[in-house]
């Protein structure tokens, strides 16, 4: 029976009298006045590196969304389909009334549980995270990453970090599901290490450059098809003859500059610190042009390039760099710049065209392709490097989906069909 209640919440307790003189149970009805919100939310989520729960396979994950009630309890409002045998699922897009998700309150807590589906209904709990519709609604503009946490595992294991991550999945990624690929390239200014240098290799913790490489790299490597990263340094004298270079391979091999995975990039980076010597000026344009030349060869949408640059903010060829960015804006290319250290980053802010589009010789960049973030804004004051890197990675990738889509749409390239999935599960939670 439909209830029309003037109050926001009412509890009705009803004692069932099936057996005379014996209490058989209590039914509690909780009611909340519905808002006038008529908004509809459409979203799509994916997960990365979830815990393995199946003995003979990986996991069969699905999500359960809960709306928070005014009394602090939670009510199930949506369940996704099951994705079989994977730790990196991509769920189908779904639509839900905002009123059902949070009763129109964009800041109300939304809880999400991650389960591993079992045929007998005893689904294994992987972990949980909380968010809000306001955060979820930014999915098309920000790369939201949520840590999936299992309270029991966190209490038992001192080194426990998380049980995986869940993030917004942008439709732009569908473009690469059949034969396409995203290619990430990495460049970093190199200094000879000493105790006052940002590159100094302490035996106790990573330096700022290594933290930035690891933070961003560990996420982007899961979207790179072959896990091979061309990695370059700029602004140094190279052995054995002291030749100055502004775009040299970190691994020392000009014909094959690829490093295997982010660990390979870090290994080559540390090796370079032992062999090269800082030498100015610090020019950005050469390495941007090198990557742009690669991107210019493939403009059919089958490949998209992302250049990650890590720098202390010093730039000696601003005019040439702006021209390089303007030229690259018409190509399948995005540029991420992470600033480390205490320097002023006015030049980097100018290259990030959020407020004013970059221009050169009277030409405006066709697209905004540069995202700049200063690492110091994300450093956790308690010294928690994991938290610092997670904060950095979330914002540093914020604009990539829109930048990718802007190129694809400008060339009339359509997304490929979404993948098929399994039926909706019945939920029986077991902690």
UniProtKB/TrEMBL annotation:
GO terms for cellular component: plasma membrane. SUPFAM superfamilies: C2 domain (Calcium/lipid-binding domain, CaLB) (SSF49562), vWA-like (SSF53300). CDD domains: C2B_Copine. Belongs to the copine family. One of its GO terms (biological process) is cellular response to calcium ion. InterPro entries: C2_dom, C2_domain_sf, C2B_Copine, Copine, Copine_C, vWFA_dom_sf. Residues 4-146 form the C2 domain. One of its GO terms (molecular function) is metal ion binding. Gene3D superfamilies: C2 domain. This is Copine family member IX. Keywords: Calcium, Metal-binding, Repeat.
């Amino acid at each position: 029976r439909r209830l029309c209640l003037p109050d926001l919440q009412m509890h009705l307790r009803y004692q069932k009298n099936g057996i005379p003189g014996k209490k058989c149970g209590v039914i509690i009805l909780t009611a909340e006045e519905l808002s006038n919100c008529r908004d509809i939310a459409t979203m799509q989520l994916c997960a990365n590196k979830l815990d393995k729960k199946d003995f003979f396979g990986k996991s069969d994950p699905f999500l359960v969304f809960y709306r928070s009630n005014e009394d602090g309890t939670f009510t199930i409002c949506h369940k996704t389909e099951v994705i079989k045998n994977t730790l990196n699922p991509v769920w189908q897009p779904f639509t839900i009334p905002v009123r059902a998700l949070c009763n129109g309150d964009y800041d109300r807590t939304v809880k999400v549980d991650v389960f591993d589906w079992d045929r007998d209904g005893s689904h294994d709990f992987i972990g949980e995270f909380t968010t809000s519709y306001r955060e979820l609604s930014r999915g098309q503009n920000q790369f939201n990453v949520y840590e999936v946490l299992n309270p029991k595992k966190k209490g038992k294991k001192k080194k426990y970090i998380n049980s995986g991550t869940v993030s917004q999945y942008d439709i732009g990624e569908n473009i690469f599901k059949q034969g396409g690929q995203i290619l990430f390239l990495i460049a970093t200014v190199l200094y000879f290490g000493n105790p006052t240098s940002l590159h100094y290799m302490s035996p106790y913790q990573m330096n700022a450059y290594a933290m930035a490489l690891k933070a961003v790299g560990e996420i982007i490597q899961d979207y790179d098809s072959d896990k091979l990263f061309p990695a370059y340094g700029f602004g140094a004298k190279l052995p054995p003859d002291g030749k100055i270079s502004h775009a040299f391979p970190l691994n020392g091999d000009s014909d094959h500059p690829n490093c295997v995975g982010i660990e390979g990039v870090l290994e080559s980076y540390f090796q370079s610190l032992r062999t090269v010597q800082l030498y100015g000026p610090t020019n950005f344009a050469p390495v941007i042009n090198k990557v742009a030349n690669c991107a210019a060869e493939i403009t059919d949408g089958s490949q998209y390039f992302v250049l990650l640059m890590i720098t202390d903010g010093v730039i000696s060829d601003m005019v040439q760099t702006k021209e390089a960015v303007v030229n690259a804006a018409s190509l399948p290319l995005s540029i991420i710049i992470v600033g480390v250290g205490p320097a002023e980053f006015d030049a980097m802010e100018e290259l990030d065209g959020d407020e004013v589009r970059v221009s050169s010789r009277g030409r405006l960049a066709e697209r905004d392709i540069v995202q700049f973030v200063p690492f110091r804004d994300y450093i956790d004051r308690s010294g928690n490097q994991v938290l610092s890197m997670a904060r950095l990675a979330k914002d540093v990738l914020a604009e990539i989906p829109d930048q990718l889509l802007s190129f694809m749409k400008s060339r009339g390239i359509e997304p490929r069909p979404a993948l098929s999935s399994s039926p909706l599960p019945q939920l029986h939670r077991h902690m």
